[in-house]
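SAMPLE LOG
Freezer: B-3
Tube label: C17
Construct: single chain, 247 aa
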Amino acid sequence: MLVPCALLGVAAFAASTGARQEPAPSAAPAAGHKVSGNVLYDGPKLEAKPLSVTAEQAKGCCADGSSVDSADPALVVDDKNGLKNAVVEIDVKDAKLVVPKEPIVVDQKKCVFDPHVVVVPAGATVRFLNSDGVAHNVRAQSLKNDSFNKTMAPGGKDEVVFANTDKIKINCDYHPWMSNWVYVTDKPFHALTAADGTFAVDGVPPGTWKVKVWHETLGRGEGEVVVGADGKVAALELKLAPKKKKS
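STRUCTURE (predicted):
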């Protein structure tokens, strides 16, 4: 069983490859330079274990002929150890956070939260939707924002403002396999890793900046990036590993 950790390695390589996920709409303006790289899983080989989804619980979740996606989204690693859904933040001194005017959407579709992880600038609104034909609820366990439990009728929606930095676990009690994380940040320069572990953050000014990484299963890590005045910046390779069990 994997437990949270705080192990992170940082190394430079010539260029990042593969598909990447764009930064959230609230990322800083493009007046600056791009920082890109990979977040990698650095641990023993994983055995895929599906979530427990019974036929009775899944009634009405999907159209006839299809079924609920029972793949566990909590720790997704590709064949090259790319780690999906890791939050990357670059801590730039005095950088101003831009709060998006439009709500950030988290949907409930086919009895799965979509997306599984969302990065939200502090002060932004999240719009929770229910696109299913069955009832859901949105139960939030928060330390620095208000916790809540909202019933979501089929086709329903509700909006919540997350004012303070936090890591908020969201569940649906009707369908216990459903989970989501709302990561509330006060850092303008941030990204969420794509399925192959790649990320990119635009607009980073010249300087030496601390890089922080968070993952729901593996915990936190730290690194550093140097952005040259000429715009040169080496791509980063960041690693997160499971915490070693005490003997």
